[in-house]
Specification:
With 260 residues, this protein is an alpha/beta fold. The protein has a single domain, classed as TIM Barrel (Alpha-Beta Barrel), CATH 3.20.20. Helix content is 44%, strand content 15%. The chain contains nine helices and eight strands. It has an eight-stranded parallel β-sheet, sandwiched between helices. The longest helix has 21 residues. It binds zinc ion (ZN) (2 copies). One zinc ion binds next to loops.
Length: 260
């Protein structure tokens, strides 16, 4: 099993050790650490050094990251590129658009800033040939529209929230685009139908730890070991053995993120 999206850098070191041990114990072979800002991204890279072959770092700036002035964006992007150049990062993200918390008074400023940040991260992904980990909330159409303006993009719509009706749209971006599903698949009935419609060779599984905890641990903090419940859920939906799901999904993750 591979958890293709987790946040572990806010955990205490002793907890990280325990969390990783537990994940490995249940059969999780690799964990991709998603970055939400420069600080997290640096920590992802550092944490990975201690767990080579298990942890893999992504670096990126989340669309919800608070921006106080436009010049901040340029400073962040410079730091991000330096991180990419100097380390073995495997993906850029999470990045994208999130329109879930826009207020009337700053709506346009926020949209413009998110777009600038996103477009620049797309350019970095093309320049360094790295996949994008996309975070798109209430803005899947807008995210696809921007991505469609670039050639040879690749990535995953992490915690895919575009419903059945946008699967084709994402597919139209090309064969290097994937759909990520999380623990909410165990309790959001509508998502089962979405999973059924997604091409099996384009599906990735993730936890988004510490968020989106699956049943039977809903209400508690999530951790990569619990990706197991997402695999089991997909096995029931696909009417397959978990080991067969593992074969397909882990191959997808390895292909997109170059995990070996
Ligand atoms: Zn996200
Ligand atoms: Zn995340």
């Amino acid at each position: 099993m591979i958890d293709t999206h987790a946040h572990l850098v806010d955990e205490k070191q002793t907890d990280v050790d325990k969390i990783i041990k537990k994940a490995v114990g249940v059969g999780v072979k690799k964990i991709v650490l998603a970055g939400s800002n420069i600080e997290d991204s640096v920590k992802n890279v550092l944490l990975t050094e201690k767990y080579k072959g298990i942890l893999y770092p992504a670096v990126g700036i989340h669309p919800q990251e608070k921006i106080s002035e436009d010049s901040q964006i340029d400073r962040w992007l410079k730091k991000l590129e330096k991180l990419i150049k100097e380390n073995e990062v495997i993906a850029i993200g999470e990045c994208g658009l999130d329109y879930s918390q826009l207020n009337e008074n700053d709506r346009q400023i926020k949209i413009n800033r998110q777009e600038k940040l996103f477009r620049n991260q797309i350019c970095l992904s093309l320049k360094y040939k790295l996949p994008l980990i996309i975070h798109a909330r209430k803005a899947v159409d807008e995210t696809v529209e921007i991505l469609s303006q670039y050639k040879k993009t690749q990535g995953v719509f992490h915690c895919y929230a575009g419903g059945k009706k946008r699967i084709k749209k994402v597919d139209s971006l090309g064969k290097n685009w994937y759909f990520g599903f999380d623990g909410n698949l165990t309790y959001e009935v509508g998502l089962e139908e979405v999973v059924k419609m997604v091409n099996k060779n384009r599906l990735l599984l993730e936890t988004d730890s510490p968020f989106l905890t699956p049943i039977p641990y809903r209400g508690e903090k999530n951790q990569p070991a619990y990706v197991k419940y997402v695999y089991e859920k997909v096995a029931r939906i696909w009417e397959m053995k978990v080991s067969e799901v593992e074969k397909i999904v882990d191959k997808n993750a390895a292909k997109l993120m170059g995990l070996v």
